[in-house]
TrEMBL record:
Location(s) in or outside the cell: Cell inner membrane
Swiss-Prot/TrEMBL keywords: Cell inner membrane, Cell membrane, Membrane, Transmembrane, Transmembrane helix, Transport
Residue ranges occupied by any TRAP C4-dicarboxylate transport system permease DctM subunit domain in the UniProt entry: 150-607
Protein name: TRAP transporter 4TM/12TM fusion protein
Transmembrane segments: 40-60, 72-89, 101-125, 137-156, 168-189, 209-231, 331-355, 384-417, 438-463, 483-509, 583-603, 609-633, 645-673
Chief place of localization: membrane
Source organism: Phyllobacterium trifolii
Coiled coil, from the record: none
MF (Gene Ontology): transmembrane transporter activity
Topology in the lipid bilayer: Multi-pass membrane protein
Function according to Swiss-Prot or TrEMBL: Part of the tripartite ATP-independent periplasmic (TRAP) transport system.
GO cellular component: plasma membrane
């Protein structure tokens, strides 16, 4: 028998086809979709991507370079490659890679020039001696201004190509504000900056392009993305899917519950919503459709579940690593704080899926459709070793990039030595290449976000926006307080509530056009201080804007994860997005809970177990009530008055206060009585 046929033979009823998953991801995720390349250009790009991965792998294990040098090398690779792989317009994706005098290796000569200029402009700053650079900050040379201006323009174009228009437009608006400060109205007025002053701040300091956002991508995010790629290649993703199918597949609506558990487990090694969606969804979406779920609902379940990957420890998304720098906290603290909110997200989706399955009478997986968990662990147990070691190193207090270094190293060793699923040397290099693909769009976006952050630090506009938001919220609280009893709704609590609502809405709107990482950085810079003014702990404020930014992946009109799932399911994208948003409504409520009861995050200053359990139990029951109301089913179909009571009860239960929880519990009682009565009547009739 051919050894390759043994290696590729299906070993599970839900066999993950990694090649198909990568193809789907490239089709639906515009950030890693490259234009057609000639054979020579493809090899050149592949070699550069591999070199970028090797650079980060080596520095993670043997020591990072000086800050500006490390970030400069990373950004030079990123911008140079962006112009080689992303065309000027969408028409370029359909243009064949034909070489000519004006298109060397099938790539426009203009793109070659932009790539070269980008590399030169980026590396100019790291090559300046530190003593000389310190003297030139605030006193740039003409060369500094010219190269800095060129880099800003080229960076905006690179971001437009790889991410889209919204983020560059936001950056241009902020730069315009910086220059025309004296002409701004009211509190937004400021002395203004000349073009050389602006270029100096954005180009020569670590407050702009070379700032914290780029630094986090270059020192944390890249390594964990690379780890996730290799962990999937060696079979850890398949083991997670088999575990999920064994845990949840046998119950009503089995494939949908497998989707939730599988996405939660897969999210532990993948911080990308779209990657999670297409990888797990390539198996679960067809299974859900075969079982009887409507196409849009199947796609919505997968996208809503997969969005939780960005908030699931230990990998999470890029924003988790940014929190380390913003808050100066160890990564273990971020992981602990994320556990309960991540659970609430998946629990909220699971509740609605369960009620939907019961309402429509959908079955679970049959025994022959279930994986053999014993055989799965016998086959794939070595794949767990890298994840255990990575988490262990993190918990021991070492740097995240060192943990990722050993995780990647062990993934490669397991892949090379595991006789049941052995990787070839060629596949190792393919993993290095594919891991670097994810760095291009997020790297360009992070550098562009540096422009926004630079303007904020230069003009102080963040504090002004915080004042505007809190003042508006206070006025709204005064109006509402005149109607509602002050004893039940204190003015301070109402002000905080309206500030949270406005912040959440802005996060979702911003997330409709820019990546979640960029959204988090901007909102953490502008909106989080507003919450801090009202006494919210920094980690709580940052988690609030982080979670609402992630919610944008399933919020129409631009719901990337939902649209990817809709494309796989052959469903209407907008209808899928609306359904996914409904399934993810638990994530809408939870951030409000941990702002008013920070104990839910486990690591806050005034944590108490009593406050934690009051918030946890109330939140869990409240999300269950909300799921029943939105699904139209609990034990039997719900009536309109029951749905209204359940929604009101859900809101009262998630308020982390014992009296409101008791009132919410009382509102549930008539619903439960009617549900049990209806269940008995249905059983008697049957």
């Amino acid at each position: 028998m051919n050894p390759d046929s043994i290696k590729n033979a299906p070993s599970s009823p839900m066999e993950l086809d990694e090649a198909k998953a990568r193809e789907l991801e490239e089709r639906f995720d515009s950030e890693i979709r490259f234009r057609p390349l000639s054979q020579v250009a493809g090899r050149l790009v592949g070699a550069l991507l591999i070199a970028l991965s090797i650079f980060h792998y080596y520095t993670a294990g043997f020591g990072l370079l000086p800050e500006m040098v490390h970030r400069g090398i990373h950004l030079s690779f990123v911008l140079g490659l962006v112009f080689l792989v992303f065309p000027f317009s969408r028409k370029g994706y359909d243009q064949p890679a034909i070489s000519s005098l004006l298109r060397p290796l099938g790539i426009s000569i203009i793109d070659w020039l932009l790539a070269i200029i980008a590399v030169v402009a980026v590396l100019h700053v790291p090559l300046i001696p530190l003593d000389d650079l310190a003297f030139r900050v605030g006193n740039p040379t003409q060369t500094d201004v010219i190269l800095g201006g060129l880099l800003i323009l080229i960076l905006l174009e690179a971001t437009r190509r790889s991410v889209g228009w919204p983020l560059p437009i936001i950056a241009v608006l902020f730069m315009t504000y910086a220059i025309f400060g004296p002409s701004m109205p009211g509190i937004l007025v400021h002395p203004g900056a000349t073009v050389p002053q602006l270029v100096n701040h954005l180009y020569l300091t670590t407050q702009g392009i070379y700032g914290i956002a780029l630094g986090v991508v270059a020192t944390y995010v890249f390594h964990f993305v690379l780890f996730g790629v290799f962990a999937t290649r060696i079979g850890l993703g398949q083991l997670f899917l088999d575990c999920a199918a064994w845990i949840a597949g046998r119950y009503a609506g089995g494939p949908a519950k497998v989707s939730i558990f599988g996405s939660a487990l897969f999210g532990m090694i993948s911080g990308s919503s779209v990657a999670n969606t297409v990888t797990v969804g390539s198996l679960t979406i067809p299974a859900m459709i075969r079982l009887g779920y409507q196409r849009h609902f199947a796609a919505a379940v997968e996208s809503a579940s997969s969005t939780g990957g960005q908030i699931t420890p230990p990998i999470m998304g890029a924003a988790a690593f940014l929190m380390i720098e913003f808050l100066n906290l160890p990564y273990t603290t971020i992981i602990l704080a994320a556990i309960v909110p991540a659970f609430m997200h998946f629990f909220g989706v699971l509740v609605q899926v369960h009620f939907e399955a019961k309402r429509t009478g959908l079955r679970g997986l049959r025994p022959e459709e279930m994986p053999d968990l014993k055989e799965a662990f016998k086959r794939d147990w070595p794949t767990v070793i890298p994840l255990i070691v990575l988490v262990g190193i993190l918990l021991a207090g070492y740097t995240p990039y060192l943990a990722a270094f050993w995780g990647i190293t062990l993934c490669v060793l397991v892949g090379l030595l595991n006789p049941r699923k052995r990787m070839s040397i060629l596949e190792v290099f393919e993993g290095l290449r594919d891991g670097a693909k994810y760095a291009l769009a997020v790297g360009a976006a992070a550098a562009t976000v540096g422009i926004v952050v630079g303007v904020v630090t230069l003009t102080g506009v963040g504090f002004k926006i915080s004042f505007i938001v809190t003042s508006t919220a206070a006025e709204m609280a005064t109006w509402v307080g005149a109607i509602l009893p002050v004893a039940l709704f204190a003015p301070q609590a109402l002000t905080l509530l309206f500030t949270l609502i406005m912040t959440g809405v802005v996060c979702i709107l911003m997330g409709c056009g820019i990546p979640t990482t960029a959204n988090y950085i901007i909102m953490a810079t502008i909106a989080a201080p507003a919450l801090g003014v009202l006494g919210v702990e920094p980690i709580v404020a940052h988690f609030f804007v982080f979670y609402y930014g992630v919610l944008a992946d399933i919020t129409p009109p631009v719901a990337l994860a939902a649209y990817a799932a809709a494309g796989m399911a052959g469903a209407d994208p907008f209808r899928t997005g609306n359904t996914a948003f409904r399934l993810g409504l638990g994530k809408v409520l939870v951030p409000f809970v941990f702002v008013f009861s920070p104990s839910l995050l486990l690591v806050t200053a005034n944590f108490t177990w009593f406050a934690f359990f009051v918030a946890f139990i109330g939140c869990t029951v409240g999300i269950g009530c909300l799921g029943a109301a939105l699904s139209g089913f609990m034990l039997v179909r719900t009536r309109i008055w029951e749905q209204i009571l359940l929604i009101v009860a859900a809101i009262l239960l998630v308020v982390p206060e014992i009296y409101s929880s008791l009132i919410g519990g009382l509102l549930i009682m008539p619903v439960l009585i009617r549900q049990f009565t209806g269940l008995k009547s249905a059983a008697s009739a049957q």
